[in-house]
Specification:
Elements: H1 17-29, E1 33-34, E2 41-44, E3 47-50, H2 51-56, H3 75-89, E4 94-100, H4 103-116, E5 125-131, E6 144-151, H5 157-173, H6 180-194, E7 196-197, H7 212-216, E8 220-221, H8 223-236, E9 241-246, E10 260-267, E11 270-274, H9 276-283, E12 294-296, H10 298-302, H11 309-312, H12 324-327, E13 330-332, H13 337-353, E14 358-363, H14 366-387, E15 393-398, E16 403-408
Length: 409
Amino acid sequence: MGVVRKRKRSGKKISGILAAALLVAAVLTGGYFYYRSSGEAFRFDGKSVSVSAFQTREGPFDAYVTPYYRQQLSAEDTVFYDAVKYMLENGVGELKVPGTYAASDIDRIVSLVQCDWPSIGLSSAWTATTTQLGIGDVHLTGPVTRISFQASVTDTPERSEQSLRVAKEIIDRMPPYTSELDKTRYLYNWLVRNVAYKADDGTRDSYRYKSLASALIDRQADCDGFANAVTLLCGMAGIESFKVFYPEGEAQDGGAAAGHVWNVVRIDGTYYCLDASYDAGYSAGKEIATNIAFLVPTSLIARDKALDPSVAALAPVCTSTAMDAKVHDVVVYDADADSFVEDASKMLRGNMRMGKDYISIKCASQKTYDELVERMSEEYGPQILSQSHVGSARWVRDSGFRVFYLFVE
């Protein structure tokens, strides 16, 4: 899994009685004071840009992505959101925001920008300071919050344009599917077969695997890079998609524990989770793409982890298992040997006639999965092979998602 690094924060007290009062009130309310008149500008690396200018500017991915989280924000939050997006898309080193923002608010808005847009990775580390007006800030009417990024996971304009070209080529090669399921599965399978998963090893060099370009151009990515690619490709295909994540925590040994990023997609009006980085571990470089972590409930990916509060308040909790029967060849709702062996054998024979030399089996419960594991190698497996007239096969199983794959050899 990729690492979602903690954002770094630092702050300085605002001197003066008025500034101190503002800070106390901000802490008590858990929010921020927003000072903005209709003509007041924000500053990006010292350059004044009006609110209307950066809010109406179209970024390189705006034509393909409908930002899920932005649509749910207040008017004030939307202005701050758009300023952060403008900053990251344009390589701005420092943003000066009129007003006093609590660190929790900055963290929340930055995370939502990162989760909406494929061009911005979730591992960017930021620092914010709130100060009195300084030289050059006379156009502002109150305290100023300065935000800078120490390590921004954002591609250069050239790399972004190249990623868009690659994504358009992938979309152009997609068969003329009419269903949202078929479109999403085609794009998912392309990624898990063609992009190698690269784990974050904690070094600075690992940042190169977190961007959209790392997945589409370099063909090597961690969970962040995969999730960015899914967001863009699904958006281009007209499928709603956005990122969710749980952050890093404290490991038992006192070190940093890994966080994880994946996608939520909306298929036929229902939200599901998918994790292309997970299936890439099974499928990269191979002709067959597994769909182990494809269109599943949130609980199967997050396990015992809680989503980051910034997205948990807005993202849907995916619970539906309605796609199991469409994604997998056989869904086992109990451990009845006769019906399971018969169904699996029939499906394998049918698949082989169509040139598909494997079947996937999904267990509806952990109890059923455990029972099948106990009896598969000695009993069920040989029976399926015998009834399917197959000499040998290779089994791949995944206990976390309760899935078996049988590959004919």
